[in-house]
Amino acid sequence: MALLSSSRVQASARAPASSRRSVRVVCQAQKQDVAAQVGSVLAATTLAAAMTLGAPQPALADIAGLTKCSESKAYAKTEKKELKVLEKRLKQYEEGSAPSLAIKATMERTKNRFANYAKAGLLCGNDGLPHLISDPGLALRYGHAGEFFIPTFLFLYVAGYIGYVGRNYLNATKDIQKEIIIDVPLALRCAGQGAGWPLAAIEELKNGTLTEKPENITISPR
């Protein structure tokens, strides 16, 4: 058994360098694919959790003069005003015509939108429009956490995604011409691999490849 194991080690040591490099490239590609898949699942799970926070509870007290849209007279007045404008436009067209059907569909969507905002428990101001609570403390205190955390999470994820994909594209090209004329297939491949950027960034941070080392930075003289 010892002889067999030693012969295997020697055979692997004698393997061509090109084959070893190809194995490393395949393993790295597999890791990137796994990271992208896991990142997509993580993003979907986090978003689902944030959406559960988005179901607001009844407000316990008045917040900056806001009241629930379902109880706001200004909100009901705004709905009637929008429907009245659509009704005036509807009278300009014949019954059953294409513009008439389109306006009726718009009126139905308007009613559904106002009804959904009221059912969601959003808060309205004196202007008759829904307002979101952007203060984390008030959002958590009055059961409107989703109004703050969902937009924050989406902004951070999208901003990080754009930055990570752009960085990978520049590292893959290293050609200033491809910064002017985008290599579409390469850009799409980088975009597909960037879905799991949080995990990939953590892995690169552990490996020390996320940031440029000081000795590799060159400053051109002015």
Automatic annotation (TrEMBL):
Keywords: Chloroplast, Photosynthesis, Photosystem I, Plastid, Thylakoid. InterPro entries: PSI_PsaF (IPR003666), PSI_PsaF_sf (IPR036577). It holds the Pfam family PSI_PsaF. It comes from the Eukaryota. GO terms for cellular component: chloroplast thylakoid lumen; chloroplast thylakoid membrane; photosystem I reaction center. GO terms for biological process: photosynthesis. It is found in: Plastid, Chloroplast thylakoid lumen. Belongs to the PsaF family. Participates in efficiency of electron transfer from plastocyanin to P700 (or cytochrome c553 in algae and cyanobacteria). This plastocyanin-docking protein contributes to the specific association of plastocyanin to PSI. This is Photosystem I reaction center subunit III.
